[in-house]
Amino acid sequence: MTNYAGNEAMISVPYRNIKDMDKFSEIYTLANSNKLYTNINMLIMFCVAMRKEIINQVGYLDESFGIGMFEDDDFSYRVKKAGYEIAYTKDIFIHHYGSASFKKLGRQKFIEIFNENKKKFEKKWNIKWTRNKYQNK
Questions:
Q1: Residue among 37, 13, 26, 17 at smallest CA distance from 90
Q2: What is the pTM of this model?
Q3: In this structure, what is the dihedral angle of CA atoms 21, 23, 25, 28, given to the nearest 10 degrees?
Q4: DSSP 133
Q5: Domain coordinates of the chain in residue numbers?
Q6: What distance separates the 2 farthest-apart alpha carbons in the chain?
Q7: Is 101 helix (H, G, I), strand (E, B) or coil?
Q8: Count of C-beta atoms within a 10 Å radius of residue 129
Q9: Helix, strand, coil abundance in the chain, percent, nearest 5
Q10: Which partner from 27, 66, 84, 96 sits 20 to 30 angstroms from 72, CA to CA?
Q11: What DSSP character marks residue 94?
Q12: Are 6 and 110 in contact (CB under 8 A)?
């Protein structure tokens, strides 16, 4: 779980500083011990774990997506297509500053990269990309 992501792994957080983040994280993760969420389309890959044989089977991140965006969608799609289930655990919380590199590019460049990589993803898989879902807690 995180405070910044483009899917269901993102939750609203009340903290405004590191001290409060630690307290929030401890309370949240204990309250969600051993809870797994499997109704998810893609993994945000700033923190992920998997068996090496999955990587051996589906390959690495597709570098044709350049500096980012949609490489997570693509990888998750390949994993699911290979017959595996993707999930995230609710008993781990990671603070994510989010899009730090992309913010340096500016909004217009971000939109250009997003649209270009969305087209690559849709063409590669011959599917229409759909926006990810979000949750509040």
A1: 37
A2: 0.86
A3: -130
A4: P
A5: 18-125
A6: 46
A7: helix
A8: 15
A9: 45, 5, 50
A10: 27
A11: B
A12: no
